[in-house]
Amino acid sequence: MTNALVLLLPVVAGIALLQRRRLYAVIGMAVFSLLLAAVYLLAAAPDVAITEAAIGAALVTFIYVLALRKTGRLVVAASEVPGLIQREGDGISGLEWVILQRLAHAVGMDLVIRFVPHEEVGPMVLRGEADIAAGGLVASDIDQGVLVVPYPLPTARFRITGPASPGEQHAEPAGPPTGYFADLVDAVRSDEPVAVTLDLARFLALTRYDLSAYTVERMEGDLNYALLVSFGRVDLHAQLAELIDELDSTGRMERLIRRFVE
Amino acid sequence: MNRSIRRSLYITSIFALVGAFCAIVWHGFTYAGAGSASVQRWIETATLLGTRNVVSSIYLGTRFLDSVLELLVFAVAVLGVRHFLDETAPGSTAEPPDPSSESHVVSAAARLMLPIVVLLGLYLAVHGHLSPGGGFSGGVVAASGLLMAAIAIGSAPVSRRLAPPTALERIEWSAMLLILALVVAPVAISLPPFSPLLPAGTVGRLASGGNVLPYNLLIAIKVFIGSWTVVQQFLRHRGGI
């Protein structure tokens, strides 16, 4: 009996080592500790067995799980953009979603997406509440305090204002419904006044509606879409850049862009 | 070399190393057991101290210096956790919200089990010289009872019901100081340090085993408060449960 358990120990340790998800590895370590406690008990060392079970299986496992609660999650703050990252039924789809999923898989973390209004995305990363900002961002949206990872999808910026009411030229329209893209679509459909700057993907999605009442102005500059990584996660920045390079060089990025954007 | 080959080489070498280690332990390590002369001597010492649990008479008797050093290592670790997590966490004053709404079954079961687990820890500590257990494991078992309650009803309510942190810290260090005092006290009556002050008593009775019982109790207090401090600080600064 003892021999069988001792033989089982390296097997369980190996299984724990080979787990890709950290939580499973920690559970493997807890199982290892319990087995070890059983071995101690059978080897007539009940004192050591009690201590091993209490510390190895309960306390240490708990402390690891607590540490994982913070590091095991990849928190992404995103604003919804059609084609790039959008809700679809119960799930999420889009180009950035696929990239983020691959990143989470590569680093062995659980992906958590928090959909927030467009202006909230940057501040959440700056405050450290999210690791990555996504959702049709351009590098110049936030230029300080974040690491920028551009990916090969060009964009442009469009300024949409109006509708200009007669006799009230150049006056700023009241209360632009920015924030959630769905709110903006609602506003455009009911011809409410808006004043927003949009990226290419959002603009294209908006051209499905009647924009004749609004003034559309293309802004200067060659721009690229980018994901923004919090300064505290330099490791993620390197891995994300590597992932995008790999996707680009194997031609997969092109296929993804064709699938989601065109 | 390609990545997957290198990876499988790593894994094979890890398994080979672990296997070799196990084989060496299997064949090379012989445990003399209770028959050998040195073990006979330990058993004699134990009966001199009056403990039924031979192990406790070793690590709280003739080899108590080792245990004291171990306890100091633990104390330094707890001190480190307390110092760094108290100072360097900005905005840590906000307590995480209580997860009391998670499940009534879990919280009710935890409330029911908490006194039992703490009592078990106390039993392990008090009976350490008679049966398997002792101060270290008793303290950790009691602290893991609190940990269970913290998971079920939140760490803030649990620590509110316990003594305030400063009082806990005082009790913890008084226990440590008392242990050290008990160690050097025999010098005052011209005995070597570490020699037991209390009589051996009758083997098998609760009041026996010389200094082992007070040592076990003090160590249990120290380990209980220390483990709870570590758990609580981690809960507060890791987003909480």
Topology:
The complex is a heterodimer of chains A (262) and B (241).
Chain A: H1 2-18, H2 22-42, H3 46-71, E1 73-78, E2 86-88, E3 91-93, H4 95-107, E4 110-115, H5 118-126, E5 132-138, E6 146-155, E7 157-162, H6 181-189, E8 194-199, H7 200-206, E9 215-218, E10 223-230, H8 234-249, H9 252-260
Parallel strand pairs in A: 1-4, 1-5
Antiparallel strand pairs in A: 2-3, 5-10, 6-10, 7-8, 7-9
Helix pairs in contact in A: 1-2, 2-3, 4-8
Chain B: H1 3-28, H2 37-49, H3 54-62, H4 64-87, H5 104-126, H6 135-153, H7 155-161, H8 165-184, H9 212-237
How would you describe the overall organization of this protein?
- The complex is a heterodimer of chains A (262) and B (241).
- Chain A is an alpha+beta fold and 262 residues long.
- Chain A has 3 domains: 2-71; 73-153 and 223-260, 3-Layer(aba) Sandwich (D-Maltodextrin-Binding Protein, domain 2), CATH 3.40.190.10; 157-218, no CATH class.
- Helices cover 48% and strands 23% of the residues of chain A.
- Chain A has 9 helices and 10 strands.
- Chain A has helices at residues 2-18, 22-42, 46-71, 95-107, 118-126, 181-189, 200-206, 234-249, 252-260, and strands at 73-78, 86-88, 91-93, 110-115, 132-138, 146-155, 157-162, 194-199, 215-218, 223-230.
- A 5-stranded mixed beta sheet of chain A has the order 4-1-5-10-6, with helices on both faces.
- In chain A, helix 2 packs antiparallel against helix 3 (46-71).
- Chain A is elongated, with a radius of gyration of 26 Å.
- With 241 residues, chain B is an all-alpha fold.
- Chain B has one domain.
- Helix content of chain B is 69%, strand content 0%.
- The longest helix of chain B has 26 residues, at 3-28.
- The radius of gyration of chain B is 23 Å and the shape is globular.
- The model of chain B is unreliable at 88-101 (pLDDT under 50).
- Classes of the chains: A alpha+beta (262), B mainly alpha (241).
